[in-house]
Amino acid sequence: MQVHTKKPPTDIIEIKFMGPIVNMAKAIETLKPLGFVDTSESVPWREAYPECSEAQLIGKALAGARDREGLTQMALSKLSGIPQRHISEMENGKRSIGKEMAKRLGEALNIGYKVFL
After folding, report:
1. CATH of the domain at 52
2. Which of 11, 43, 81, 106 is the most exposed place for a label (fewest CB within 10 A)?
3. pTM as predicted
């Protein structure tokens, strides 16, 4: 019997290959009929928001990671030991996230802390 889990199963994967550049187009065309999409022309997320400052982008990453885990700011505060007010300020780009704070957030959110630096 299947048990309901907090996170839904992953329906999409990303794969990367290393090999001769001359075979790249052939590899892409071979995988397309299987439902894979070439994302090599995608734009890095930081470049997608040129109007946002670095602090605002990091705040959006924090808010997104918190939302992905299904946590409120208060719940994240309890997990990380960081005051809820500080989490709100970080998400809104009004407070920087230092290395130690990033490590605490990363551990609480099950994500690499370097995302927040």
Report:
1. 1.10.260.40
2. 11
3. 0.61
